[in-house]
Amino acid sequence: MNAVEVLGLRREFPPSKGGRNPSRTALDGIDLTVGEGEVHALLGPNGAGKTTLCRILATVLVPSAGTARILGHDVVTELTTVRPLIGCVFGGDRGLYGRLSARRNLCYWGALYGIPGREIRGRAAELLDRFGLRAHADERVETFSRGMKQRLHLARGLMHGPRVLLLDEPTTGMDPVAARDFRTLIGELRGEGRSVLLTTHDMAEAETVCDRATLIDGGRIRHTATPRELGALLSRHERIEVGGVPAPLLARLDSCPEVTSVRTGPDGSTVIEVSGQSALGPVLRLLVDGGVTDLATTRPSLEEVYLRLIGDRGMEVAS
Ligand SMILES: Nc1ncnc2c1ncn2[C@@H]1O[C@H](COP(=O)(O)OP(=O)(O)OP(=O)(O)O)[C@@H](O)[C@H]1O
């Protein structure tokens, strides 16, 4: 059974009263599956529909059409079955009580989920430890930094031991060490058999933690694949990165029929693209015979794939 199964999902937002904001199609027929135990990243520019999809899966927003299931249960008609199965981390200040301590926030949340009283304190202490918040456990949350709140959100999302985690930009506001620890945590959650759907703008995060990534834009899915497959999608050309190529050899490479492009960056390193794998051997031989030892074949990063497929719109939000 799949952890998440979405079919033909649509969500329209009607125009605002007075017509100042036009109607918007946030999701325009989405099909997506996340297997059990899979970590799946949802990538896309601002306004792509990622949060809308997460909110529907989290049962806080209903779709206009289509279906969404969590571990086989419909998020609209089986809401009370779905809720205990999912842990949601949407960030911001919502869901945390500023005047309560971190520990009391977790205990309160545990009680809401019906965890037996004698287990709640132990579970809260365990999670406070796991997220490096033990020293601040009894301080008011309103005194916390954004990154600390984000960690507490994650702890809260795990309080009732959900099998499926929906994380909307979980590392926003975390410092690099906390973000690295978070990636380790995701690995642990996968090891425990939990499934994770996470939205992120951080390509390194997606590339290192996810089994598959889905690129979404304008409410539609552009591609779903492993990061490596996505890289392969672009590389009809194999690439070789080399350092210190002498000028005469560069000229020879440029005139090679197998070579499709030669680019030298300001740091002196050169990227050579060749037309397909069979062309790789002769070009590598030419380089080695020419005395070049500093070379590596590479694939495009997830970030390059993303920019190529979604388009580099800079700050422009999809309309
Ligand atoms: N409550 C709402 N009312 C009207 N339009 C909305 C509402 N929520 C979202 N939208 C619109 O739906 C589209 C998708 O928004 P969504 O928040 O899902 O995008 P996102 O991919 O999460 O973006 P970001 O990366 O900026 O968080 C956008 O055009 C947005 O303006």
UniProtKB/TrEMBL annotation:
Kindly give the membrane topology term recorded for this protein.
Peripheral membrane protein
Q: Which Pfam families match?
A: ABC_tran (PF00005)
> Where does the ABC transporter domain lie?
4-243
| Superkingdom of origin organism | Bacteria
SUPFAM superfamilies, per the entry = P-loop containing nucleoside triphosphate hydrolases
One biological process term in Gene Ontology: response to antibiotic
Q: What is its main location?
A: membrane
Compartmental location: Cell membrane
**One of the record's GO molecular function terms:** ATP hydrolysis activity
* Keyword field: Antibiotic resistance, ATP-binding, Nucleotide-binding, Transport
- Which GO CC annotations does the UniProt entry carry? plasma membrane
Query: Which family does the record assign?
Result: Belongs to the ABC transporter superfamily.
List the PANTHER family. Answer: ABC TRANSPORTER ATP-BINDING PROTEIN, ABC TRANSPORTER ATP-BINDING PROTEIN NATA
What is this protein identified as? ATP-binding protein
**Organism the protein comes from:** Streptomyces davaonensis (strain DSM 101723 / JCM 4913 / KCC S-0913 / 768)
